[in-house]
Each structure stands twice: as structure tokens, then as C-alpha cells.
Design brief:
Blueprint: H1 2-22, E1 26-30, H2 34-40, E2 45-49, H3 50-72, H4 74-101, H5 107-115
Antiparallel strand pairs: 1-2
Amino acid sequence: MRYIRYAFLGTLGIVLVSVSLANRDLVTLKLMPDDLAQLMGFNLDISLPLFLVVLGGIAVGLIVGFIWEWMREYKHRKQADVKQREVRKLEREVKTLKRKQNDGKDDVLAILDESA
């Protein structure tokens, strides 16, 4: 399975390098359309190679997706944390009750009762 993953990552790397080398022409990115920029009084534009624009868009999309998913799962993580604290509390309570139950008993029998 590990070799399949390495083969996939290697193939993906070769494809990305190939696409990058094939798309080195400069493109101009503008912050706003020309008419809106004249109305606002400013415009920001930058010239970048096309492959940087494409790969940058993919990277930004992945980052936004990860953040979005992390925020969406917050309620599930919080609920799991509450349940985990409750389980720990109940485990401590069970140990305390077993100790009280085993007071005065033989040590070997108490150990056997605790392990069950």
C-alpha cells in the first residue's frame, strides 16, 4: 500500500511539474474590473505565471476547505470531549465504589474483583 501511495505522489508530482513548465506565460490578475476601478479610484494588478495562479488557486481552495470542515466539526468535537470527561468521572466513581466494597476483604480477592 505504501508503494502505491509513493507511486501516486510521484505521478502527481510529475504531472504538476509538466503542467507548470507548459504554462509559464505571464497573466495579469486584477483586483477589480476596469470600470469599477475607475469609479473607486484605484486598482491593484499583478503579473504572475499561469501555473502559479492555478496552483495557488488549488492551494487556497484546500486551505479554505480544511478550515471550513474544522469549523463544521466543532460541535462534534465538543460533544466527544464532554462524553470523554463524563466517562473518566464514572470510571473514577466505579473505582471508588469497588474500593469501598472490597474493604476488609482478602487482598487477592479484592484485586480479582477490581480486574473484573
